[in-house]
Amino acid sequence: MVDFQLTDCIETQKRLLALTYMLPGNFTIGSARKGHLTMVSRVIPVDTFDLVIFGGTGDLARRKILPSLFRRYCAGQVPDGSAIIGVARGEMDDMSYRQMVAEAVREYGGGRGCEDGTLDHFLERVAYQTVDALGDRGWPELAKRLTAAHIRNFYFSVGPSLFGALAKRLRKYGMTTPDCRVVVEKPFGRDLATARALNQTLAEHFEERQIYRIDHYLGKETVQNLMAIRFGNVLFEPLWNSQYVDHIQITVAESVGIGGRGEYYDDAGAMRDMVQNHLMQLVCLIAMEPPARFEPDAVRDEKLKVIRALGPVAHHHISRGQYGPGEDGTPDYRTAAGNPRSTTESYVALKAEVQNWRWAGTPFYLRTGKRLKARSSVINVVFKNLQHSIFGEEAGSHTNILSIRLQPNEGITLRVTIKEPGPGGMRLIDVPLDMTFAEALGAEAEDAPDAYERLIMDVIRGNQTLFMRGDEVEAAWAWTDPIIAAWEARGDVPKPYDSGSAGPGDAEQILARDRREWIGFTP
Ligand code: NAP
Asked: What is the DSSP string of 80-139?
């Protein structure tokens, strides 16, 4: 058996994620899942804070923000005296809001920590204030709820059209401080012009160091592991270039449709909703140069260089699709969107090129879509074949692939070539060297913070590394805009694809033209 020590990776994770792992065993090819790591979460203390959630009764607050705060409370990361204040126009007192928060925690919090009075203790920190972002109702009362000595965090969990009004009134009512932070949700604009306008609006009231633009993909464990793997190991970085990497595939596939988000989604489409932000961030983390230090601006400077190095995408390097009805009776895209003539794409695949010294000649194939055959987010780094095999042609051609799974089953697989066991000469086979975090790290992995937990606490800690800077967002739109503009100019209609399939057929062509093919959704 061949041993695979993960010590370097683990050491880096310790530093980056403040998690401690102890390695009692090795990982072995073909049976890596037998390896065991013991993980002990270490909670980084934060200063006492006030967190005001504008849109505190909305879907995002109920599904993500409030349950995440509760889990951090259970982990001991919410200091005594901190206050969480939900804000919306609806009339409600503190008690009714706490009841709503309790229901949200029970429904979306994963069922942990709700017993033995923990939830009641958490709720003592929760309050509600009726405020209209567009008027002056409720603002003086909200100001009175804040404590001068606390770090102030304002979470704009509302549509972007309210950002300006909120920022203006926060200042008018004396709630902003030099250290306060503001969190804004996606979508950050729908093109370069609107993103610029939003950046300008925020810049009138806050400095860039105070603005946290959330892309929850960046808070995922595996996404950060990408940096640990690349920059914490001597193993991969020497091969991480066009000399050794044949191409890269990034797939973010969903099996669900657009659900209740029809109106928003139909105005956005897969390009704006997924590629401009999530997939772009993944491209950045794969393609960026090592930053001098693991510090917010050093990391973001390198990501920005990647986005600016992206070349224009030719028409024939793009596939655009729209899902049809499901065999189980689920509606087609147009019905779900309530727009029978919609030309919005629910699927997009494209070939991108990072035009710099490291990546010239190594294509990045991206695809994302809804109602596909599996829910799967995975990055495949496909290495070049050996230039010469000493084992002869009969040994066949073998390819090393590093697969980084973001969901489901966050983890990493390295496909390596070994001798097929047994007699009968030198026959080669490819086997996965597999590290599934949930299995490798055991039950404690479940206690690792999820993306929103991590990102919210990063805001409170004042760490912007995992948030997008204004110039990054603008550069991403500057690359995306011409693609969308070309579709609009041509009157492009997306190709239909079957629900539950791999997407439209011409997505295969993008790779087939380069004598390549997509790797399955679940490597
Ligand atoms: P939502 O369910 O429609 O909730 C909107 C919230 O804003 C409600 O609490 C609403 O309460 C409040 N609100 C609306 N107008 C207001 C005003 N004038 N003054 C004060 N409060 C006001 O929206 P959501 O799904 O939570 O989304 C919030 C933001 O996050 C959006 O920008 C969305 O694009 C983004 N986002 C959402 C998700 C998600 O999964 N839901 C994911 C990513 C990003 P009242 O009506 O009582 O005022």
From this structure: TT-EEEEEESS---HHHHHHHHHHHHHHHSTT-S-STTHHHHHHTTEEEEE--TTSSTTH
- Burial, 29: exposed, middle or buried (Cβ in 10 Å; 0-12, 13-18, 19+)? middle
Closest CA to 351 of 310, 383, 294, 323: 310
Query: Could you tell me which of 314, 366, 327, 320 has the C-alpha nearest to residue 346?
Result: 320
Whole-number Å distance between alpha carbons of 133 and 309: 39
pLDDT tens digits for range 348-398: 999 999 999 999 999 999 999 999 999 999 999 999 999 888 988 888 889
Q: Is 317 a catalytic residue?
A: no
* Domain residue ranges of the chain, discontinuous segments joined by +: 49-185, 218-512
108 residue type, one letter: Y
Query: What is the 8-class DSSP label of residue 405?
Result: E
| Residues 211-218, mean pLDDT to the nearest whole number | 94
Q: By three-state DSSP, how is residue 264 classified?
A: helix
- Ligand 1 and 90: CB distance under 6 A: yes
Strand 83-88 with 245-253, pairing: unpaired
The mean per-residue pLDDT over the stretch 452-479 comes to 96
Check if 186 has its Cβ closer than 6 Å to any atom of ligand 1: yes
| Catalytic one of 150, 247, 278, 317 | 278
Residue 446 binned pLDDT confidence (cut-offs 50, 70, 90): low
Which tokens go with 80? Answer: 């005594």
Q: Is 129 a pocket residue for ligand 1 (Cβ < 6 Å)?
A: no
User: Which CA distances in Å does 188 have to 214, 315, 367?
Assistant: 9, 26, 21
Mutation test residue for ligand 1: of 59, 217, 266, the one with most atoms within 8 Å of CB: 59
Residue of 139, 157, 452 with the most ligand 1 atoms within 8 Å of its CB, for mutation = 157
> Does residue 208's CB lie within 6 angstroms of at least one atom of ligand 1?
no
Phi, psi of 100 (to 5 degrees): -65, -40
pLDDT of residue 423: 83
Can you give the pLDDT at residue 37? 52
Q: What is the CATH number of domain 49-185?
A: 3.40.50.720
CATH number of this structure's domain 218-512, picked from the four choices 3.20.20.150, 1.10.10.10, 1.20.1440.170, 3.30.360.10:
3.30.360.10
Q: Above 80 in pLDDT, residue 332?
A: yes
